[in-house]
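Discussion board: Methods & Data

I've been asked by a reviewer to show the raw model output for two of the constructs in my manuscript, not just the figures. I'm not sure how much to include, so I'm pasting the format here to get opinions. Each protein appears as its amino acid sequence followed by a line of discrete structure tokens. Is this the kind of thing reviewers expect to see in a supplement, or should I convert it first? Here is construct A:
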Amino acid sequence: MTTNEEVSFRSDVTVELVRASASDADVIFAARVSTAGEQSLEDVDADAGRSAGLINYLMRDRHGSPFEHNSMTFFVRAPIFVWREHMRHRIASYNEESGRYRQLEPVFYVPDHERPVVQVGKTGAYEFLPGSEEQYALIDHDMRESCANAYASYLRMLDAGIAREVARMVLPVSIYSSAYVTLNARSLMNFLSLRRKVEGSHFPSYPQREIEMVAEKYEAFWTTLMPITHAAFEKNGRVAP
């Protein structure tokens, strides 16, 4: 029998850095092999601060492969509609929890008042503005009611012996799912260039707010791990090399 769990609601995402092998020195030794060959092994523990100019050159002239010799693994918990956008980026390795093999937890996303909800402008150059109190009240009431009803239907089907992979079809894309995401700095820069709206970017982006929340948390971790590389990314207009 299933457990009649209480439905809960969130307005945030979880991003945790699980493990990382990523530093600015990784960029240096990878880049120098092209001219130093075997001697480049001496740069494995290089002082990247002394080579900030090289990192900036690689970023500016878009020599991308030296930025691939590192790895970061994140644990991410976000609504399924965020995962559908995230996995369009074929730049990472993913392992997601499975609704076929486990009962999904009744946790759903509902926007809070900090989330703009009114779209203005044309496609490709639009912006979102805050809604009225009435609009936020409608969002909150209808989403909570819809999610609670959907999860109750899900439990009824499980109790009736219906397979999890079939019962889950009734659930909305606002339900949370979790996954491990492993990627390198070059891939992450590609993601950030498209999924964050940052003043000064050479190519403006208009991401959905919820995936931008994930991107913001990724970038906060990456800035600490590879500060010189991140600074070069910023200096050169946030264009992925």
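Construct B, same format:
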Amino acid sequence: MKNLRGKIVWITGASSGIGRELSLAFAKEGALTVLTARNVENLNRVKDLCLRWTKKCWVFPADLSETHNLKELVDNVLEKTGGHIDLFVNDAGVSQRSWAKETSVEIDRRIMELDFFSAVTLTKLILPVMLRNKSGHIVVVSSISGKFGFPMRTAYTASKHAVQGFFESLRTELVNDNINVTIVSPGRIRTDISLHAITKDGRPYQKMDKGQSNGMAPDLCADKIIRGIKKNKKEILVGGKELLMVYIHRYIPWLYYKIVMRIGN
């Protein structure tokens, strides 16, 4: 999918952060964009910006953690787009800042519902359309936390490991169906993800992590992701020097444990 002009692209988590910048970048490519997130006001701001570059942009607000409502959402989107989705980008998610010993299973389930089950549910609802059209591209924004464990992220990391496993397996199942699957694993990107991260009592963390504030600009991140999508890459790692942890974990595990245990203490 080297040329995105006129393609219908649905982005979740589109109201802020990476999702917002991806929405704008797709619009600049001439794609027809569908935007979904909870914050209607922010979505409409993104829509107004998208319409500077693209002919059409639709807003479909939704709380994706309410997975029982997602079939209706998909039906409504497909009705507006004429039953066609060329590219689906699942970016919606929430991070975590709490120790496992202090965090209830209810909080774990809340994180898993949005970060894993919403992506799976939406993908399974959209997949029949792509199979019928004999083309499509599914993109899921995971995290480098889907590659290794990290303190105060137990449920978040678990959800991203689950995302990695599900979409890697899905890719193998779709190899003969002309449907591509791309897993994006960002490192530290300068977004508000830490501000909105869930704490042990379910309230937002409301602090900007130092690593986050010094991270890659989200528009640069979005540009790198779109370049990878246009090349049909299976995996996209994007970030700064923190990406080294992926390779340290893979090839020098003793060093990974030494580093991460120090952080945990």
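Answer (T.O., handling editor elsewhere):
This is acceptable in a supplement if you add a one-line summary per construct. For B, something like: The radius of gyration is 18 Å.
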